[in-house]
Specification:
Elements (H helix, E strand, L loop, with lengths): L7 E3 L12 H9 L2 E4 L2 H10 L5 E4 L5 H13 L4 E4 L12 H9 L4 E3 L5 H6 L10 E5 L4 H10 L5 E5 L4 H12 L3 E6 L7 E6 H7 L8 E5 L5 H15 L4 H12 L3 H10 L4
Parallel strand pairs: 1-4, 1-5, 2-3, 2-4, 6-7
Antiparallel strand pairs: 7-10, 8-9, 8-10
Helix pairs in contact: 3-4, 6-7, 10-11
Length: about 270
């Protein structure tokens, strides 16, 4: 079957299992003039496995801008380019945004191939009701920022990446902020030691108390009553600004049509961030 030719290809690569790559991706990687990749050493292992001889050129977050002019010049000369990341789909928490913007701006044709990404691999094997979720990329490292973001998205299933070195600390902050919520956590997806667990956050912390290894993806399930979690977040925000419990009850009751006494009781129980 004949395939349409493009100037620039965004190519997903395996997130763990080297066989998780499409036939079309292999064909394109063989046919393009060169491959732009995060780490040439990582990509070269994949190419060697499939006996692909295409030249690799480094393209990562530290040299994105300086590579743009080079890529544009090559495209103008009629060359074709494939963009890959070390694992998964480029621009999903990986470089590529700058060059894609410039390529479109200059009128070159671009396409993205379907393929591996940790998000859909993870979501397709955990229990969920409904299709809505939000993906925030890598969760912040600072406790106040973690607390703020998990409160902000308490009304939907929130998916994030984290490192094995930080995840247990992150889970502790989430538990402190949102209580013993239900979460799902996956590590080493598509690899030999793949593990996915869905449970109360306290049980997940206990399960990994001796440590955790591998690439991490996690989802916090939406609160059953997100409007209450949202009010709690507003109470904490007002407390941080120095308002007293009685003042908070009057403000939020007036703004959101709530019972003043109910808000007051919530405020008494709610600690500042």
């Amino acid at each position: 079957m004949s395939q349409r030719k493009f100037d620039f290809y965004v190519i997903p690569t395996p997130i763990g299992n080297i066989q998780d790559i499409t036939l079309r991706a292999l064909e394109v990687l063989k046919d393009v003039d060169f491959i732009a990749c995060e780490d040439t050493r990582v990509t070269q292992k994949l190419l060697n496995h499939y006996d692909i001889k295409t030249k690799c050129i480094s393209y990562h977050k530290y040299n994105e801008r300086e590579r743009v002019e080079f890529f544009l010049a090559e495209l103008k000369s009629g060359k074709t380019i494939a963009l890959v990341s070390d694992a998964g789909t480029p621009m999903i928490c990986d470089p590529g945004g700058i060059i894609v913007e410039e390529i479109r701006k200059h009128g070159f044709s671009i396409t993205s191939l379907p393929g591996a990404t940790a998000i859909t691999t993870f979501l397709s094997q955990i229990p969920r009701t409904g299709e809505e979720f939000c993906f925030i990329g890598f969760i912040p490292r600072i406790e106040a920022q973690i607390s703020a973001i998990v409160q902000k998205y308490s009304g939907c299933n929130m998916v994030f990446y984290d490192s094995p070195e930080r995840i247990l600390k992150t889970l502790g902050i989430i538990k402190k902020t949102r209580g013993d919520v239900r979460i799902a956590l996956g590590r080493e997806l598509s690899k030999l030691f793949e593990e996915v667990i869905a449970d109360k956050i306290s049980n997940v912390i206990e399960h990994f108390k001796d440590g955790i290894k591998g690439e991490i993806i996690c989802m916090i399930y939406a609160d059953d009553k997100p409007e209450i979690a949202d009010i709690t977040a507003k109470i904490k925000e007002l407390k941080n600004k120095g308002f007293k419990d009685k003042e908070i009850s009057v403000i939020l009751a007036s703004l959101f049509g709530l019972n003043k006494n109910d808000v007051y009781k919530m405020s008494l129980l709610c600690k500042q961030m």
